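Thread: "does anyone have the structure for this chain?"

Original post by V.I.:
We have the sequence but no experimental structure in hand. Need at least a predicted one for the grant figures.
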Amino acid sequence: MPENQDNWDVENDRHESGPAATIRMLLPWTSALLVLALLWTGWTFFSRHRQIVEAQQEAAEREAKADQATLNLLGGDRLTVLDFYASPGAIHRGMHVSLCYGVSNAVSVVIEPDLGSWKPAISRCIDIEPKRTTSYTLTAKSAKGQTKTASATVTVE
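Reply from O.Q.:
Generated one for you, tokens below.
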């Protein structure tokens, strides 16, 4: 092939026109724009994900603080009798009364006389029908063997 033929091809390539030439000329720019669009989209998703994770962590911290405040209100980690009362406190013979109790950090609850053992609860009421005026004693016991007691009296007229 003559030496002039190579020069002619190079000259022809520089002055090429038509759709193929336009595509070859725009390809580096469109590739760069595509990379930029992908980077922008990736950054948008990443930043939104990071915001969601931070919001979830803040919510978990607020919930933990609220749980700790509730726990402290209910006696923290110590055995506590929260409530023990009769409602109503005075009845006529043959009527029913609610004997209610609430304990924190107890493993067992005993109510005497004759009501037996009950499960520990923050709030529970037992329907009873005393025949005469009676003083009830609640004894709550912790896992460490500590006990707390409380009393409530139902007056029967």
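V.I.: this helps a lot. The longest strand covers residues 147-156.
O.Q.: and The chain is about 45% helix and 30% strand.
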